[in-house]
Structures are given as C-alpha cells and as structure tokens.
C-alpha cells in the first residue's frame, strides 16, 4: 500500500510555531509516514462503529420512561381548577394547558402554509426528522460553540410541547427525536399539524390559533385574512420579541420574513407578498384577563397544590368558590392604579425606559396598529421633540403629546419655582429615540389620529382590602400595583406601621373605661424616659403646635399626637393592647407609649378586619376568602361559614363609629366628605411619610388602603400623608362601589344617650346656647353639669397660658429633644 504523505502537510508544517515544529517533527511526522490507506480505512471503520454503538446505546437508555405517544390520539385538555367570585363570575383559572381546540379544516389554508413555510417546509416529506435541518443547525451550533439552533421539525416541536420540558439540553434533544419518530408512526401528518396549531404558544396568554385569533384580532380563526395570518405565523418563534404590543416594527419585520419564506416555497408570488404586506392590520386592544385578582389566585394555587397535590390542582377539575366580588375588585384595581400613578407623578419624571435609534425615513403610520382605548398606558417611541410638543409612536399609532399633557414632567422642583419660567422645555428631559410611557387621551378611529399624555409606571406600591363587616367575607383584595408570578401580596404579607390609623383602638379602650366623646384631653407637650444622660422621646403634632384642652372627639378627628399619648398614659398600655387584641389585631404590639401613634406593624387585611368590628356593632368575624372547595364530582372538600362573636358592646362600637364619622366630617378625612353619605374612617401616616393609610367604612362595607414603597425606609415624598396619598384611592373606590346603592345610616342603639353639649368644655350646654352641639354617651356617662360662662372663660385662659408655657418649653428644651427613630411617632398627625 502506498503511504499517505500529501504535499499540503509539508506546507502546513512550515506555518507552525517553533515549539510546535519540534513536536510535529518528533511525533506527528513519523506517525504520518507510517500511515497507509488500509490503516485509514480501519480507523474510520472502528470510529464509525464505536460512534454508532454509542448513539444506539444512548437511544436505548433514553427510551425508557418516555410517555406513550398514543395518548395524543385521545387527547382531552386537562380541566385545571376554576376559581369563582361570590357572584358566580370567573375570578381566575389555574391550567397547564390553555386554548380552544379547532379541527384542521376550520384553519385557513393560508395560515397552514405560512406556518409550514416558516417552521418546517419539508413537513410532509420527512418522517419526523429533517436531516438537512439537523445538519444545518449542528453546523451553526459548532460555529457558535453552544446549543443555539433548533433545527426542529413541527413533529419535534409538538413532542416538546406535549411530552417534554422546554429546557434545552442534549438529553431533551435525544428524547425529542425518539418521540418524534414514534409519533409519526402513530398518527397522520394532518393530525400532527392540527395538534401543533392548537397547542403552540402565540404570546399574550394565547395558546393555539383560535385563542390567538381572538386575542389579537377579536375574530375566530376561520375569519382572519391573509395579512393577519402572516402576522400570527411569525409569533411562535419568539412571542414576546415579535409581539405587536411590544414593538410593531419588529412585528412587521417578522411578517415580512414569513411572506418571504412563502415566496421561496412557492406558496405565493412576489406580487402577492407585497400586496399582503401593505394591508392594514388592526389589532384588538389587549383585554384584561379573566384573572382579575392575581394575588388571590396565586395564593389559592399554592394552597391547593400544598394541600391536595399538583394532580388535583391541574387534572381533576376542582372548583373554588370565594367571597371576592369581581365588580368591586375591578373598581379597586382601577382606583389603586390611578392613585399610585398620581402620587408617582407628584415626585417628578424619572426619565426614559430605553432608547432605540430612529431610522432615516419619513414619519408615517404603520400598517399594523392596535385599537387602543382611551386611558390605556403603554410604551411609545419618541420620534420628534419640539418646543411645545412631542411626536411619538406607540402600538403602531403616531400622535402628539402637548405641553399641557406633559406639564407634570416639565415642572421644575420647588427650590427652582422662583425662576421666571416654571417649566422646563421638553428637550431638557427627552430626546428623539427615547422609549417612554404614554397614556392614550383620545383616539379618532376613522382617521387613526391619537393624542397622548406622557406617563410613567409607578415604583410605589399599595394595597386595597374590602370586607363585609357582619360576615367577614373579603370582597376585595388587591395586593399591589400589578402582579408577576410569585408576586408579593402586600394586602396579606406587608407588615407596616399604621401611624394614626391605630389611634381608634386607644380611644375605644378609653370609652370602655369611663371616658366619653366629650371628655377633655390636654394637647400639650409630653416627654418620656428622660434622664440626665439621655434626652427623652418627645412626640410632636403634625403642625408642631399644641391646642391645649380639647374634647376627645376632636382630638381623634384632628389626630392630635400629644393628646393621644397623654390619654394612653392615663389609661394604661395594657388596657389599650387588650382592646386592640379583641377587635382583631394579632401582630405584636410595642410595649411602650409609641404604640399610641402606631409604631407596631400590621398588615392591611388585619387592620381592615379590626375596623370591621366597629362597623358590625361590636361583632367580630374572622376574614373569609374561601367559601368552599369542590371536586369534579361535586364533593365538598372544604367549606367556611361566618362565625361571628360579640367582642365589643354595641353601644361602645357605635361611639367609636361616631368618633370616626367626625374624622370624615371635620378632621383629617375631610377628603371623603364629597361622597355625601354616612362614612367613618381614619387616616394614618408614619414618620418621614414612609407609609400612608386610610381605613374607613359605610354601614355595609369596610375598606382599607395602604400606600408605600417596598423599601420600608423610602419616603413617599414631602407631605404625602394618609389624607393625600391613600384617601383619594379609598374615596374613589367607595364612591364607585356605592353610587348605585341606597344611602344607609349608621344605626344608633336605643341605649345610647344623646345630649346637647358645650363645644369648649364638654359639659351640658345651656338651653339658649346657639353654638351647642349634639354628642352621644354610654348610659350613665353623660355630663350632668351645665357649662357656665366663667368655666368657658377659664378654659380659654388655661389654653392661652399653656400655649405660652409650651412655647417657652420648646425654646429652653430643644437641646434635649431626641430625634425619633420609631416610625409613625414623630410629626404624625394624619
């Protein structure tokens, strides 16, 4: 046999580095000189045989444990679990498999061809594996030095969706090949294509072509046109990237690719491709999913899976009946989002969300656009920045943002408000190419002319809880601004300081222990735990003033801190803690006087539930979300009924309600007075404006709102009190929930005593006193002494003297004042 020694090998040796040349000469070259054709054939044979046996071995190993492909013949979607609201409306669905199955003959031929051309042009020729595609993908993977290319046929993709996980690995690829071969032997090509088109994911929660057609176009799949079909066919490759709700330009690029592949495969001509590409495609506005309470659905999903197992959750058709009112839930979501956006804007414009280079082409309307509704918020691309307007493109629509509609972002900070020009010019904060959030203000659908407002997604969080007082049924639970998988539920899991929203428990304990709404409290300076070495804790009122003697009712209505701390001193901490416990506060309570001002953390659902005890005339009901859980056969697995217990005398409960009515009528809750129906409530603000609350109720519904950042030390902003940050959300929710309901009055128990009293002294008013006011008392606690003119004058003098003493103490004792570190106890009044 002739030895193999190509001339090119010698040339190759000359190109090697010096060190490699010696290795070449001493080892490689002698071996090559001895190499013959016979040896080469032998080496190739042994290598090929070994490789073949290894591949066979792998296929045998990975064949064990694979699911039977025959199950696809009798495929029925797994029912999952359906969660219902109290009104029978669907609150959410927990399913692995989603979509609506349609037979292949109802799917347009153009869409089938578009999918075949894009995903697997040789589908009807191969036996489950496209060896040309595999070779191409393998070569590209080698070049990329990673598993990058799929090279998968439609059959392989179907096996991945139905039988395997989407995680890329060599093992999964081998299993995919085995299952694809088996599947091709069991069912026909048309059946494979039908299952594929009904199972593949198209983005926006749409599985299968029918759900995709409804989601994107509001049509059935057999009603879509060719341009719409070409758009759909391009989505499965990367549903998020090519989503028209994400970037219309990329959607059009992908649509062009699909049509180009159809031309290459001779399904259509170049002329047809251009005609279809230029057809306008109007997309449906994204509908809110039927999961309107994602935090609750996520919680129930975890609970059922832990209690009954994943098979029951996904495969057994369970039904969960909850207390949530779907309509109220929607109102709460809207109110919270609107309120958080308004708060966020007051803190200024944070800048762009991204940047995308502008193309050097004329600004023109896209042929793909979304029929958005006024009020919708989405990303937009800034095309032009003028002196008094912006031109932007969002969801395929081109429109303008006027100076008025971005004024909040252009407003200069307060320290610069003395400038002649109060506003910045748009070019100072935005440039062409920026990606910003916009809100659709108006839209002329015929002319496709929108107007936008500049917007931004808030970083601040919030929660809304609403409870039916006499039953404990939770009617609303909104756990945050929006939801991501495994999202934190601020309604149940956020332990935050309530500030003055805790004060009703102090005042309620006082009413149980002989105080009345007309009792006189002293709103004067107070210092705790002072020593020669350490200055004491010195609570302050929000306005840094002291009002002297005042009725208990007004001390709560005006949220006077020092009066509340003095009241707790007289009452005793233990009585206040015991009262809070029996009405529903279960979290730890600080064992010091800062508790008077809400320094102990609670959750929104816990605090709302405690307020419900006042609204239900002293009857305590534990919060209930799950009414019952039923299996597919109708067997009740769990059920929960209200278990009301009287924990508070109904007369005392009414007095507390009456005090809280004064908060809305005359105090820090006046922002809800416009609703014009009987309401009671309390604001809460913690130190440095970290947390803002409003808890309140009508005779039939209790609602609580919390607003704050996840970072428990981040401030909401200057003067962002409960009255400013939380109360507008609460008011919006309560107004919209009650607007079609008859007005109800708070019931006054027969035992409660009503008297005309003097507003200054809290004593009985003279019969001819034109300034007398009505107040309520527990039997036997009403005043018996009449206010005399001398007493009123003395009270006024006392107030003036104590104000002077307070000012002197402020001036001489300022060096002793200790900066408060217990959130919600210094400067808190709302």
Question: What is the CATH class designation of the largest domain?
Answer: Alpha Beta
The assigned structural class equals alpha+beta
Gyration radius (Cα, Å) is 36 Å
Large-scale geometry: elongated
| Unreliable residue runs | 144-149, 795-829
Would you give an account of this structure?
The chain has 25 helices and 24 strands. By secondary structure, the chain is of the alpha+beta class. It has four domains: 57 residues; 194 residues, Orthogonal Bundle (Penicillin binding protein transpeptidase fold), CATH 1.10.3810.10; 140 residues, Nucleic acid-binding proteins (OB fold (Dihydrolipoamide Acetyltransferase, E2P), Beta Barrel), CATH 2.40.50.140; 334 residues, DD-peptidase/beta-lactamase superfamily (Beta-lactamase, 3-Layer(aba) Sandwich), CATH 3.40.710.10. The strands form seven sheets. A five-stranded mixed β-sheet has the order 2-1-4-17-18. A five-stranded mixed beta barrel has the order 7-8-9-11-10. The protein has a five-stranded antiparallel β-sheet with strand order 13-12-22-21-20, with helices on both faces. Strand 10 and strand 11 form a beta hairpin. It is elongated and about 125 Å long.
Short description:
By secondary structure, this protein is α+β, with helices and mostly antiparallel strands. Strands 2-1-4-17-18 form a five-stranded mixed β-sheet. Strands 7-8-9-11-10 form a five-stranded mixed barrel.
């Amino acid at each position: 046999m002739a030895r193999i020694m190509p001339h090119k090998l010698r040339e190759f040796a000359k190109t090697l580095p010096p060190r490699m040349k010696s290795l070449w000469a001493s080892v490689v070259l002698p071996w090559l000189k001895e190499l013959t054709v016979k040896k080469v054939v032998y080496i190739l044979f042994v290598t090929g045989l070994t490789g073949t046996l290894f591949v066979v071995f792998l296929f045998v190993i990975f064949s064990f444990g694979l699911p039977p492909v025959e199950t696809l013949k009798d495929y029925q979607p797994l029912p999952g679990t359906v969660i219902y609201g109290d009104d029978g409306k669907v609150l959410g669905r927990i399913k692995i498999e989603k979509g609506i199955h349609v037979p292949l003959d109802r799917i347009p031929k153009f869409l089938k061809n578009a999918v075949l051309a894009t995903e697997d042009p040789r589908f009807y020729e191969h036996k489950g594996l496209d060896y040309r595609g595999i070779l191409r993908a393998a070569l590209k993977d080698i070049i990329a030095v990673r598993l990058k290319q799929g090279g998968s046929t439609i059959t392989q993709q179907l096996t991945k969706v139905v039988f395997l996980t989407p995680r890329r690995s060599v093992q999964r690829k081998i299993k995919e090949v085995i299952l694809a071969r088996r599947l091709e032997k069991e069912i026909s090509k048309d059946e494979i294509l039908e299952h594929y088109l009904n199972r593949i994911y198209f983005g926006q929660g749409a599985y299968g072509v029918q759900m995709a057609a409804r989601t994107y176009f509001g049509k059935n799949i057999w009603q879509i046109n060719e341009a719409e079909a070409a758009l759909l066919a391009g989505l499965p490759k990367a549903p998020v990237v090519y989503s028209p709700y994400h970037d219309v330009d990329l959607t059009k690029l992908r649509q062009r690719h699909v049509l180009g592949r159809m031309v290459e495969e001779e399904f259509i001509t170049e002329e047809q491709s251009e005609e279809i590409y230029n057809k306008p495609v109007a997309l449906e506005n994204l509908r809110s999913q039927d999961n309107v309470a994602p935090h609750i659905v996520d919680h129930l999903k975890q609970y059922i899976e832990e209690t009954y197992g994943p098979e029951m959750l996904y495969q057994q058709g369970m039904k969960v009946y909850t207390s949530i009112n779907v309509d109220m839930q929607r109102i709460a979501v809207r109110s919270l989002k609107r309120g958080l956006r308004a708060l966020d804007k007051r803190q200024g414009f944070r800048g762009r969300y991204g940047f995308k280079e502008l193309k050097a082409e004329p600004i023109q309307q896209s042929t793909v656009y979304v029929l958005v509704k006024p009020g919708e918020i989405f990303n937009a691309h800034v095309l032009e920045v003028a002196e008094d307007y912006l031109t932007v493109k969002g969801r395929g629509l081109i429109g303008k943002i006027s100076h008025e509609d971005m004024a909040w972002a252009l407003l200069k900070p307060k320290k610069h408000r003395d400038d002649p020009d109060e506003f910045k010019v748009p070019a100072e904060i935005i440039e062409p190419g920026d990606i910003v959030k916009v809100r659709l203000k108006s839209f002329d659908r015929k002319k496709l002319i929108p107007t936008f407002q500049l917007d931004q997604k808030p970083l601040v969080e919030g929660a809304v809880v609403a409870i039916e007082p006499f039953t404990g049924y939770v009617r609303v639970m909104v756990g945050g601004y929006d939801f991501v998988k495994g999202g934190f539920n601020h309604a149940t899991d956020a332990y935050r300081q309530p500030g003055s929203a805790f004060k009703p428990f102090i005042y309620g304990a006082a009413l149980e222990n002989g105080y009345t709404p007309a009792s006189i409290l002293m709103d004067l300076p107070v210092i705790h735990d002072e020593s020669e070495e350490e200055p004491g804790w010195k609570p302050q009122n929000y306005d840094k003033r002291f009002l002297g003697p005042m009725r208990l009712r007004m001390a709560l209505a005006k949220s006077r801190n020092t009066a509340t701390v003095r009241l707790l001193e007289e009452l005793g901490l233990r009585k206040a803690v015991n009262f809070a416990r029996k009405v529903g506060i279960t979290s730890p309570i600080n064992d010091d006087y800062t508790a008077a001002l809400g320094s102990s953390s609670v959750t929104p659902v816990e605090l709302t539930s405690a307020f419900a005890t006042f609204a239900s005339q002293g009857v305590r009901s534990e919060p209930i979300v799950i009414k019952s859980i039923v299996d597919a056969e109708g067997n009740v697995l769990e059920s929960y009924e209200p278990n009301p217990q009287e924990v508070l005398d109904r007369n005392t409960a009414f007095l507390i309600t009456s005090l809280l009515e004064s908060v809305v009528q005359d105090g820090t809750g006046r922002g809800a007075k416009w609703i014009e129906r009987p309401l009671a409530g309390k604001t809460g603000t913690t130190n440095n404006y970290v947390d803002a609350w409003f808890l309140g109720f009508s005779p039939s519904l209790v609602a609580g709102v919390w607003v704050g950042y996840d970072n428990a030390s981040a401030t909401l902003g200057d003067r962002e009190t409960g009255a400013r940050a939380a109360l507008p959300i609460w008011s919006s929710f309560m107004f919209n929930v009650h607007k079609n309901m008859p007005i109800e009055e708070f019931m006054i128990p027969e035992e409660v005593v009503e008297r005309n009293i003097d507003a200054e002294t809290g004593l009985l008013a003279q019969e001819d006193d034109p300034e007398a006011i009505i107040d309520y008392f527990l039997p036997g606690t009403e005043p018996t002494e009449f206010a005399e003119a001398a007493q009123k004058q003395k009270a006024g003098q006392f107030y003036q003297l104590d104000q002077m003493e307070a000012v002197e103490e402020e001036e001489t004792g300022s060096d002793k004042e200790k900066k408060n570190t217990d959130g919600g106890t210094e400067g808190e009044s709302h």
